[in-house]
Amino acid sequence: MPRELRAASEASQVFYPSRPKLGVSLEIGGNLGSRTVKLWLEALDAASGRFVPVWKETTGRDETIAYTFTDKIVTLGVSMPNARKVMVPRIARVTLELSSGSAPVECAVTVFEARSTMQGF
Amino acid sequence: MPQSGIVVLTSAVRTATTYSSALSWDSAKGYLVVDVTAVVSTPTITPFLEYYDAASAKWLKFWEANNPQSPTGAATYLYLFSDTSFLPSGSAITESHQVYLSDGGMRFGMTHGDSDSITYSVGLNPVVSNNLGV
Fold first, then answer.
1. Where are the alpha helices (DSSP H) in B69-116?
2. A-chain residues within 8 Å CB-CB of B5?
């Protein structure tokens, strides 16, 4: 989701992670005001055809946060304070939810896959 | 092409305990999604999973949700299964459980606590794992 002014909530394109470790960075560009931004990672549910949240987090600050989703939390706390225990769906998307407000918010979301030493991933 | 999930139960109005047919599932992990779209009155549901025991020709329960759910409208419940003790939590997850899923000899069931009507579907959806791709 490129960096641009957004007035309402928005979902990303569907993507297909191939690794169990995934990074998602959220950039908020300085005009958040009193609004909050919720970032969701969602999985496609085969039965309902809906995307269902598997992780969500809220921020109310103008900042850039890089979350790392991992299926092996070991000692990531110090060096990776934004690591999160999440099982990464095979069919996924992210959704940015803006709380109500009048001014658009400049923000961007980037998804990247991360490597580890486990079984070639 | 990514591995997609399976439809355990299609969306339908139900008033009594329901079972799926035998499931084909070749992963040790997954997200089970119960998607409730309508209710009448105050239904209560509890999902569970069973293995088939060929010797006794019986289905045996090996997992049941800790908490029955009594939705008052549309609701989604997300249950996470893993074969390891790594169990994510968080506000998006209804319950996380360490269980051993079966390939072919497993079925899903939903206990209905009463005969109040409830419409729901159930899907089992894959995750990416670091354990040899399963």
1. none
2. 44-47, 91
